Task: inverse folding
């Protein structure tokens, strides 16, 4: 068994990250999302090269690493902010009468 074989598993729909690799990556994201995080750091936490990590991450998670990081619940909030129409109008310098 190779090192890469321990980091990914093969299913009926192709190669995916193992649950342990997904956990390591998501723990890293949780710990470093506020400080900035690179694709290389994510790949290293899974023990894979950047290019291969991107491929198997997308197959495993259904989205690219970048899309994953942009999700609101990854950035620390599960709630989409809501604003009154008057607040938005004021920010855009529209007259509110």
Result:
């Amino acid at each position: 068994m190779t090192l890469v074989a321990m980091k990914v598993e093969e299913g009926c729909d192709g190669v995916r990250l193992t649950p342990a690799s997904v956990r390591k990556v998501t723990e890293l994201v949780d710990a470093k999302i506020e400080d900035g995080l690179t694709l290389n750091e994510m790949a290293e936490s899974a023990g894979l090269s950047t290019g291969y990590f991107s491929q198997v991450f997308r197959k495993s998670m259904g989205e690219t690493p970048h899309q994953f990081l942009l999700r609101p619940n990854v950035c620390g909030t599960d709630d989409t902010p809501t604003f009154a129409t008057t607040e938005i109008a004021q920010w855009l310098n529209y007259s509110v009468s």
Remarks:
- The first strand starts at residue 8 and ends at 11.
- The chain has one domain: 3-91.
- The chain has six helices and two strands.
